Amino acid sequence: MSDLREFHDDMRGVARDVLAKGAHWQQVVDAGWSALEVPDALGGAGASFVETAIVLEELGRAAAATPYLGTTLAVGALTALAPNDSRDALLQRIGAGATAAVATGFTVSAGRVSGCAEFVPDAGGADVVLLLAEAAGTPVVAVAPGLLVAAQPVLDETRSLATVMADGLDVAQSWPLPSGVAALTHRAAVSIACDSLGAAEAMLAATVDYASVRRQFDRPIGSFQAVKHACADMLVQLSVSRQLVVAAVEAIAAGEDAGVVAAMAKSHATAAAVDVVGKAMQLHGGIGYTWESGVHVYLKRAMLNRALYGSPAQHRRSLAARYRRDHGM
């Protein structure tokens, strides 16, 4: 376990070094991140979601604009399928650098797929778009040429979202999804939680650094009790977020039912990130509200993350409903 922890620490360090030089997709591919969960036999690293989560967190910390989220969700969908030649070819293609996205809410009937999905991360310009669909009551992953993909403008310029539409398109390929759609939506929610955790931790670190050098009344503002308490509250929120995110990541990596832990991680980590980045903007004073400070980039990313794949309120309602069901209430 200690060796694995050291490996993960090294991975974080490498990720920060790479992202400090920029966040171009080719750099992501060259670092091997697009192939992390692709099996060894297909040219990938054969890693788990634990390692992918580290990259997701560091991308959030850097507020990086890459199609990694959609691509890693597609890898998760493909690795959940039974091995076959066409699936393996897609995994190899993505591992080599093809971008991908996953859209939900489609139906397949008589070999044709129909449906519409909104706010699909990284679908615009993706080389591969996978459709999570239902065919005669069975969940499937499908590929259909001719999809209509329309970009959806959002305030967060670090994200690319799109609407994906299909109206009776011929299905080129489809595979049964044994794990069901829920497992993949849990993975998506936790992926966003990882991103939010990284973004919020970056803003806490930036705030502490700023408070140590910004002076008022001949003292660093970090020496003022109100600032100390605010930073301490931010740290507590993020400590809870990290515990919840780690538990959810481990559950997904182990193939366990992650419904509860994913909802807890997504609801707390994304809400906490908005609070933390908002406080960071306030503690930076007037400069925090300027374009040059860059805090606004993290705030917009945190706010979009809070809404993607279920708001905190939606996840808390699902937790409450599950509790009532499990306890016969």
Keywords summarizing the entry:
329 residues; Butyryl-CoA Dehydrogenase, subunit A, domain 2; Butyryl-CoA Dehydrogenase, subunit A, domain 3; 2 domains; seven-stranded mixed sheet
Terminal-residue CA separation:
41 Å
- Backbone shape: globular
* CATH homology-level superfamily of the largest domain: Butyryl-CoA Dehydrogenase, subunit A, domain 2
Instruction: Give the number of helices.
Output: 10
CATH architecture of the largest domain: Beta Barrel
* Order of helical and strand elements: HHHHHEEEEEEEHEEHHHH
Low confidence ranges: none
Strand content: 15-25%
**Number of spatially distinct domains:** 2
Count of strand segments: 9
Q: Helicity, in percent?
A: 40-55%
* Sheet with most strands: strand arrangement: 5-6-2-1-3-4-7
Structural class: alpha+beta
Structural description of this entry:
The protein has 329 residues and is an alpha+beta fold. The protein has 2 domains: 2-178, Butyryl-CoA Dehydrogenase, subunit A, domain 2; 181-326, Butyryl-CoA Dehydrogenase, subunit A, domain 3 (Up-down Bundle). The protein is 54% helix and 17% strand. The chain has 10 helices and 9 strands. It has a 7-stranded mixed beta sheet. It has a two-stranded antiparallel ribbon with strand order 8-9. Helix 1 (2-20) packs parallel to helix 3, helix 3 (49-61) packs parallel to helix 6 (180-213) and helix 6 runs parallel beside helix 8. It starts with a helix and ends with a helix. The model has no long low-confidence stretch (mean pLDDT 94). Belongs to the acyl-CoA dehydrogenase family. This is Acyl-CoA dehydrogenase. Its cofactor is FAD.
